[in-house]
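Q: A reviewer asked whether we had any structural model of the full assembly, not just the individual parts. We don't, so I'm hoping you can provide one. Inputs are below.
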Amino acid sequence: MALYIPELVAPGGSLEKLKMAILYGADAVYIAGENFGLRTAADNFSKDEILRGIEFAHCRSKKIYVVINAFLHDKELGELESFIEFLSQVKVDAVVVSDFGVISYIKKISNLNIHLSTQNTCLNSYAASLCKEIGINRIVLGREVSMEEAKIIKDQTGLEMEMFIHGSMCMSYSGNCLISNYVFNRDSNRGGCKHSCRFLYQIDGRRDYFYSSKDLMGFEFLLKICHAKIDALKIEGRMKTPHYLATVVKAYRAGLDSLKEKNEMDWSQIGELNKIQTRDYFGGNLMTKATEESVFSKGKIDKAEDIAGVVLEAKKGEHLLIQVKSAFEKFDHLEFLPFRGESIMLEVLHMMDASGQPIDAGKTGSVVKLPYNPNIESGNIVRIKRKK
Ligand code: SF4
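A: Here is a predicted structure for the entire assembly that you could use as a starting point for your response.
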């Protein structure tokens, strides 16, 4: 019998990342406009970028969700009206909202699909039933909910369930935390979280990273998640790098596609998830309650980012144009990440600058030409195999 395959929902911190997420296999991308999101430092989208992002997604049969997860005062609701009108006109697929007042307001002035943001911390079927009564279509569950609990909530309400599958954790109940306000006067519920939970603290003379959580990885549970008929899986990280995004989306796409086509997992991509800059992984609360084992006591991420660049153009029979993000030299080994399938390893034997002059090194920020390869496409991420 065919498995129930969840939608793969990826973060789009910029138009470049939105496109990358879709090309590497996301079914939907969540983004934020310039106001009302919870990432003040992220590359939030202008209206023109939202429009271009939706066009890019819709012509590939993918979806765009716009996050409006700040909690608003009455006077701010008026400012929301024109943004909601705009989102309705450009046919966004859903808005992801936290505040019940904002939800009620959006219902009053539009017919937009509404997903309840994880920021609302829905943990049980009574809260979910209330959401159903007010017309919410999907619930992005709190990261504290297990897969078994999610299945029960879905069975009791019939609502779509979305769960976090990969990325950083919030040690508090999804932003309901005041450490950042208290220490830095920066409000986690208004996009200002300083990640104070990641800091070194001292309690009774003991210094440690008491509140810093390991990162969630649910890759090994994909089959169980399909059996539980969870509707969507969310990758955290609008602030993460394109390299991180491409690697994570590609791995989960491969896992889900293999379950769809062969009813079994493709484990080949699990090693890729260890190549990106990440804290140690754990399974969050998906299967069992997080314990003291979930604390990331190293404090700092010690893995280096090994991106070399991005393929800007693959001109058939002529060249690959590479935007260099981290310098590399002749005779370095590069690893190209195609949108599907195994990586392609190449040694740099010939390299030219953008005008076609031979060079020995590609500087960070420059554009270089490499020989054409028919298996490499525009948009592919390029890693460097660092010399030990
Ligand atoms: S400081 Fe940490 S626990 Fe608090 S909201 Fe930010 S990420 Fe969550």
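A: Points you may want to mention in the reply: Residues 307-385 form a domain with the Elongation Factor Tu (Ef-tu); domain 3 fold (CATH 2.40.30.10). The pocket of iron/sulfur cluster is lined by residues 170-172, 175, 177, 179-180, 188, 193, 195-197 (CB under 6 Å).
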